Each structure stands twice: as structure tokens, then as C-alpha cells.
Kinesin motor domain-containing protein
Amino acid sequence: MPLFINRDQIFAHQVHLLEHKLRSKEERILELETENALLHLRLAECLGKLRRDHKDVAEAQKRCQHQKNITKSTQTALAKLLSEVQVLKHDLRDVFAVYVGFATELEGQSKQLLERVVSATSDVQGDSEDVRALQAKVEALERSLQEEKERCRTERLRRKLLHNALVELRGNIRVHCRVRPVLPFDAGFGQSGSVSGSTLSEEVVHAVNDVKDTQEDVFEEVKPLLTSLLDGYNVCIMAYGQTGSGKTHTMIGSQNEDPMGPGGAPLQGVIPKAATELFRLISEKPADSHTVEVSVVEVYNNEVFDLLSKDGEGSGAKRDVITTSTGTSEVTSLTYEPVRSSAEVMQVISAVLRLRARSPTLVHRDSSRSHLIVTLTVTSRSPNVLALARRLQSARQELHRPAQKEWWSPRCRRAASGRRGAEEQPASPASSPLHSPCHSPCPSPRPSISQAPVRTKLQLVDLAGSECVGMSGVTGAALWETSCINRSLSALSDVLGALAEQRPHVPYRNSKLTHLLQDSIGGDAKLLVMLCISPTQRFVAESLQSLGFGTRARQVQREPARRKNAALKIK
Ligand SMILES: Nc1ncnc2c1ncn2[C@@H]1O[C@H](COP(=O)(O)OP(=O)(O)OP(=O)(O)O)[C@@H](O)[C@H]1O
């Protein structure tokens, strides 16, 4: 069969083949492109990973470097430590060697000491008898020393009592000196200067016996005078000294706490303690035999004020001092307040103390600018024992003289009949019939067991402080006050001078103060001057001046103090 193949068919066939080839080629291309894309993706992935790995490697390298550095510094420190450990080991070996040597030495010494102790113990045991004997001797010596001390103390006390008695017998004025302690306000003066290397606030004045004068000690010196007061003597206790030296503290008590209060007893000064002692002594006497009155006077700017007067309008009433016909000094129209206990005395005094003139000075913040005189007047109506004895003796003599018996008037007999009659007599001496002259013809002395009531005075004086105007820094009215104080104190000193030199004229009237105290200073009173002294360098001149005043007072020789009832006449 003829093969007849159409050309178109061949062509179509070829086209078909080509198309098929093309299609497979395209598929292959697509396949390859896909593969290429996948490879790209993987490449990108690998690149990313590579980058990350690079970073990790850099960090690892950094860490590695850091680690290397640490290792290096650790090695350096370790090497240093090792060398130090070596040194320490060396030192430790040395110390240990020393310790061993020391321990060995100590052990040797301990052994030696132990041996010595053992031998000493055996020695002591051997000497125990001697030791006991020595101990007994020491005890005996201590005992006798104690006895000597006691004897010495008693002797000192006796000497003091004898001295006081001698002073009184000679009629001298007793003078005591009290050095107050350094107080906080003294320091305030010390900074401004110095004298020969010592500060002004330095303590330079010391009591010879260096004893602390407590309020109790001071009162012990005063106490016997109160017995004298009831025995019929006038008594005056006067505090003298520079401003701020402790006069008010001595006479009244401390101003910081209430010295009059129940808790203030140790701080109380002479006045409250004297009032207590006086009423204690009176309580031992027959009931109602003594009465006490108090008066309080202030001498301010050379004027006398009655601080108990009701008409003083809060500052006391002005009064005069006169000399009576008997030559004694007296304050006119003075108020006397009857008191029955020490509490009443202190009540009266406390009430008027606030009236006292005070003002601050550079030296003392609460300075008293006046002289204060508290007087306790004791009126005693006790029958006089001496008179009774004389009366009995006289009566006995009369009995032995019967012829004269009828000469006795009935009144004389009544007077002799006993104590009762005496107690029934009125208090006033002027109105007492037993003391009015007996007009009956009695040739023999008329003995009387009664006596006029005896009045004795206890004057307690807190003087204003002597002071240097420059130092106290006062001006104006206060300057006038200071000048009045100084003038009255120098008048007091002049009076003592005149008395000491026994001059015919004693200038009592140069000042109201001396006129008022005339009986106590120059009269027959027992007078105790309490000198108050500041202890510091700053006030040395004032302290010497006060001591000079005390010396002057001690040189005064008066008539010995007289009892008020010694003048009683046995008629
Ligand atoms: N012995 C003492 N112990 C303790 N304190 C004292 C003593 N003496 C004085 N004082 C104190 O010193 C201060 C001054 O004393 P005080 O008022 O008694 O002086 P003064 O001499 O009365 O002075 P002035 O004359 O200025 O009134 C007070 O605060 C007082 O308490």
C-alpha cells in the first residue's frame, strides 16, 4: 500500500512534538525555578543562621576574653595570697617559738614562786605567835589612840567652854566667825579678772579648823545663851558681814526653801531655832510663869520702823528711839505681839519679813537693805528661889529676936507667909503692893519671896550688809540706801572703838542703829557677834574689814553681864 503521508500532517505532527517538548521544557523550567526559589530561601536561612552564629561566636569570644581576664587576675591575687600566707606561716612559726619560750619561762617562774610560797607559808606558820602578839599591840595602840583622841576632843571642848566663860567674866563680847561655802553665784564674778594668778572666784578664806558650819553647829553656840535669858540676862545675837556673806541665812535660814516650813528644820537659822528652844525651856518651868512677846523693828535709811504696827500702811510705822530715865534705850510706842509658841513667833515674823526692804545689787540678787531687829521679851513671874532662901534665913533670925517681933506689921507677916501670896500679886512692878515701899516701922530688912516680874530681852539682829559702792553697782535711791547702811555700820564700829578704848563718851546717838542697840552693845547684855565671811578672792578686802570689826568687838571690856533679878532688894 502506498504510503501517502500528507505534508501538513507531518508538519502538524512535528508541531505537536515540539509543543510537547516545549511543554515538558516549561515544566522543567518551572520545576527548576521552584527549586531555585527553595534554594534561595534555604540560602537566606543559612545566611541568617550564619549571622547569628557569628554573633554568638563574638559573644563567646568576648566571654572567653573576660574569663581569661578573671582567670589572670585570680591567678595574680592567688599568687599574692600565697606569698602572704607564706609570710604569715613564717610569722606564726616565730610567734609560736616565742610563745613556747615564754610558756617555758613562765612555768619555771611559777615553779619558783610556788616554792617560795610554800617556804613563806611555813615561815608564817612558824611566826604566827609573833604576828598575834604584834596584832594585839596594834589593837592596844589603836585603842589608846582612840582614847587620846577622845581626851583631846573633851579637852578642846573644855577649853572652848572655859574660854567662853572667861570672855563672859571679862565682860568681853563673844565673837564667832562663819565662812560660807563657795556658791554658784560666786562663779559669775570669777571670769573678769585675777589677782596674782588666782581667779577672783577662788576660795581663799578657810576656817582654821576647816569645819563646815551647819545651821545646827551655829545654833549649838547660841543655845546656852537661851538658858541665860531665862536666868535673867539680856541677850543679843547679831550677824555682821559684807553683803551676800550669809547673815540672813545664819539668822533666819535659807531663802530658797521655806526655812519656817515643817520640812525646813535643818535650814532654819538662829531665829526659828532660838524660838523653838526658848519655848522648850519655858515648858520645863511652872505653867504660866513666863510670857513672851515679840516685836520686829527695821532700821532703814537711818529711820526706825515698827513692822508689827497696824498703822504702817504695809511698810511699818515710823518710830523714835529714846533714852529712858534709867539710861536705857527704848523704841517709842513699839508693838509687842504676845506669842505662846515658836510657831506663833515664826508666823508673826514671816508675815512681816516681806515688808523688809530688799533690792538686787551686783553682788547679791536679794540683798537686804535694812537692819532687822527681832526682839523676844520674856516676862518671868517665877518666885525667886534666892529671895525665898534669904527670906527663910531672915525669918529664922527674927525668931531668935522675940523683942523685935512686934515690930512686924501685919503686911510684913502676910508677905512672909508663903509663896501663894506672892503669886497672887499683880504682874506690874509699879502696881505691886509688895514692891511699893512699906510704911510700917520695920527696923529689920523685910524679906520678900516675891519679886517684880522680870523682863529680859533676846535681841536677834540681822544687819544689812556692809558693801563697797563700786562693787555693788548701785545708783540713785539704792546709792542713798547703801550710804545709810555703811554710815550706820561705821557708827557701830565707832561705838565699839570707843568702848574698847574706854573713852568717856561713846557716840551711841550718831545713828539710830547704835542708839537702839545701846543696851546690848555697851550695857549688861550677853552679846554674841556672828561674823559672816565670803570665802572668795574677790571679797578679801571686805572679809578683812569684817574680821577687823570682830577684833574691835572682842577688845571691848564691859561690866560682866548682870542678871535682871540680881538687883532685887530684900527688904
Ligand atoms: N553657810 C551657807 N550655806 C549655804 N548657803 C549659804 C550660806 N550662807 C549663805 N548662803 C546663801 O548665800 C546667799 C546669800 O546669803 P544671805 O542672803 O544670807 O546674805 P546676806 O549676808 O544676808 O546678804 P545681804 O546683806 O545682801 O542681805 C543666799 O542664797 C544664801 O542661801
In short: The chain is about 50% helix and 15% strand. The chain has four domains: 67-121, 131-169, 174-381+453-567, 392-447.
